[in-house]
Amino acid sequence: xxxxxxxxxxxxxxxxxxxxxxxxxxxxxxxxxxxxxxxxxxxxxxxxxxxxxxxxxxxxxxxxxxxxxxxxxxxxxxxxxxxxxxxxxxxxxxxxxxxxxxxxxxxxxxxxxxxxxxxxxxxxxxxxxxxxxxxxxxxxxxxxxxxxxxxxx
Length: 153
Known about the structure:
single chain; Immunoglobulin-like; 41% strand
């Protein structure tokens, strides 16, 4: 049996933006493997989160809040697990001076399609600023990139 996979194509939320990227997801025994690649973004650290709604309308605002089926506090999913973070709290991606960045992580407990922690049909949001893990949502600022997560058959 093959592991479930999904992909989100990330595009800039502002008119004229050259931001482009992808996020690939794969179920593993350890959790959901997440690989993010971004091009054309401003240099620095940027918060990246899974949001509850699969819509990038209204400059990414239609994606709603962070994916948080357990009503947990904001935090680092990879450091604290589902009990200490929103299910969508993926942390930060570092963008270099050329506007490129990559992030690889395993998100414990998340899946592509099965159960309440499924990411299929939700959105990935790249924020304008660093996620400082503060409450309630990490102070990462506006939404500069958005992509809808779609399971692959």
